[in-house]
Amino acid sequence: MLLVPAVLVASTTLGYDLNFRTSVAFVLSGPICLGVSALYCYNKKVSREVLLQIVASMSYPIIAMTTHLFLFNPSVKEVLTSTGSSFETSGGFGPNQVSTLLGLGMFALTVRFFMKSPTLFLKVFNLVLLAAVSFRAIVTLSRGGVFGAIIMILAFLAIFYGSAKFRKRQQIIVSIVLLFFVALVTWTISLNQSSGLVGNRYANEDAGGREKKDITTGRVDLFLDEFDGFKKNPFLGVGASGMKQSRLEEEGTIIASHNEISRLLSEHGVFGILILIILIFTPLYFRSGHRNNVFFYAFLAFWFATINHSAMRIAAPAFIYALALLNVTHDKRPLHRKQLKQKTD
Question: Where in the cell does this protein reside (predicted)?
């Protein structure tokens, strides 16, 4: 219901250069997807084993996508010529979105490595897959997905290590050392295959090694522009896709928002503030009474990081946010009691 006022405002403000139906659907499909997913998952009981299967299932299409990327672009050196995000190393798709999904795959495979790799073969197998996915994420030269993955992994390991007993903690430390070694090797290979451009990208330098002025590649300017839109229209906002209309009139080009928070504020006004309060405090309140989800903070971190660098262009942050609202229960083994047989004389 909080999204409706922005649609009504958009119906009166959007110009003929923007299609009303597609423009509104573009900016509202993500929030609606999040709402539906969250309502379905809220307090839904699942065992930890089922949750691990869900995380594993997320990795399968990402592994398939990684295979496609290797087939589509087997040689990174041949296509990387600058430090800008690369469509060629992203399989022809948007680097930001591809990097985000590959980052999610990095997290899923890290979870498999720590929690579902009882044998040496499985540990090596999952580490090889993790290295392959990480390499393809790094060479997209889109940093958001990689940083998001690192934040997720750190959040997961903090909770996983903190809830483990002493003996399990020793095993986790050994696994962390192995993970760090694989990460170092993957980074070195990425530097080599990109002729050092990866290092320049993450150091905020151009191909010639000169420091760039804006580390956010224009995102801060968009954020400030949308915040100005909120200040000018604090109650109802400028309407769904209103900022695209504003930039089209002022600059002559259609530029979509990269930050869902500033978009909510500018296009929904005070209703956007209410939406953000609900989205942030609902899972935190839920967490206070349900502490068995070891991935809670990792899921919430992925959602928050993604909407800040890629808005809601893909359904992944909405789905992952909903998983944080699951009520994870401990697996209980059924007890089999033997019946006593009465002796007969």
Answer: Membrane
Q: Are 2 and 267 in contact (CB under 8 A)?
A: no
Tell me, yes or no, whether 285 lies in a domain: no
Is the whole model's pTM more than 0.85, yes or no? yes
Question: Is the pLDDT reported for residue 345 higher than 50?
Answer: no
Give the count of domains, the chain.
1
- 3-state percent helix, strand, coil for the chain, nearest multiple of 5: 65, 0, 30
Residue 7: burial class (beta carbons within 10 Å; 0-12, 13-18, 19+): middle
Give a yes or no: residue 142 inside a domain: yes
Tell me how far apart the alpha carbons of residues 305 and 310 are, in angstroms, rounded to a whole number: 9
State the angle between helix axes of 260-268 and 4-13 in degrees (0 to 180), rounded to the nearest 10: 70
The pLDDT assigned to 280 comes to: 94
Q: How far is CA 161 from CA 158, 165, 196, 344, in A?
A: 5, 8, 35, 56
Q: Give per-residue burial for 35-67: e unless 16+ CB within 10 Å, then b.
A: bebbeebeeeebebeebbeebeebbeebeebbe
